[in-house]
User: Fold this.
Amino acid sequence: MALRYTDRLKFGPYGPDETFMKELQQHFSDAEIAEIGYIVMAYGGAHNFLSSIGERVLDDAGNDMTEAGGFPLVFDTLKGVSSVQTPEEAAVDGPLPQS
Assistant:
């Protein structure tokens, strides 16, 4: 449920709907829902900021995970994989910086 909530916060332009929130409240308290939302949005904001300044992202082995334009990798919690930003994500997050 927490990952579904994360996707709705990050990728849904209107956020979670009322039906989803009622389902979420069956698993988490209001305080927990607020905390999850805060953390997701804080990291999402950090991602957007790092993208805007062209930050390089390294994996645990020190390999560069970015492309020339900055920070294009996103994590799709529904699929559990990282991928290059899609046009839909760009519409929500804004375009990636151009090199």
Observations:
- Residues 30-52 form the longest helix (23 residues).
- Strands lie at 73-76, 81-84.
- The chain has a mean pLDDT of 74.
